[in-house]
Amino acid sequence: MWNMAEMIDSDLEKGIGAIKTEVIKQADLISEKWSANKQESPVVIMLSGFQGSGKTTVVDVLAEENNLVVISTDEIRFNLINKGVKFSEDFVRLVNATKYELLRRCLERRYSIIVDQAITPNRVKIVKEILDKYSNYKLTTIFLTASKEILRQRVSQRPEIPGKYRGTVDELEVSIYKYFENYGDPVSGGYDLIIDTEKNSPQEVVTIIKNILKK
User: Fold this and answer.
1) What residue spans of the chain are helical by DSSP H?
2) Which of 24, 89, 106, 208 is the most buried (most CB within 10 A)?
3) Planar angle of CA 23, 176, 69, nearest 5 degrees
């Protein structure tokens, strides 16, 4: 039995209570740029990792080489911030509701998808519940890892890229602390695949993922 706090957290994660017209508007803004094709055996990749793990680079290469749609909460947040929307609980609801609206649109069109966001057990559960309504989709969860020292170094040396959130070392430290506090070590967290981006180049990471998806 869930307690009330857990129910509230779940509602927030699902985006329940977000203004529907605004969700549709934000989803339209992003989905109109999609150029993917319908797939016979579509996949959903939930790709996670702390800031500096190489997610953005891997996502960009995977999407371009494999005709995948990227659903990124960073992109949704960036669009809302550019509109002047202030961070709040309603902001979080809108981001989450837009993410799942985009996911459903992809599933209806049978696109293959990368969900670029930190993975938690609750998020995986929600995606699985949505996927149950669609046939022949394969879900793969992946965590990109590196030592804390390398993550700090990469984040501190990141260049500014238009449309991309740069992040800070302080935010990295907080996200690592909160993840370990709430979920433990991600390396033993039940992901389908753990890839060390210190030992593998971005292209090698992409190759590893592509080989897994072929199985």
Assistant:
1) 4-14, 20-31, 55-66, 73-82, 89-109, 121-131, 148-156, 169-183, 202-214
2) 106
3) 35
Residue carrying the six token digits 């990109």: 144
Q: What's the pTM value of the predicted model, to 2 decimals?
A: 0.85
Express each pLDDT in 137-168 by its tens digit: 989 999 999 999 999 999 998 776 665 666 78
Residue 88 backbone dihedrals phi, psi, to 5 degrees = -165, 180
Do 12 and 107 touch, CB atoms closer than 8 A?
A: no
Per-domain residue ranges of the chain = 4-214
At the top level of CATH, the class of 4-214 is alpha beta
> N- to C-terminal Cα distance for the chain?
37
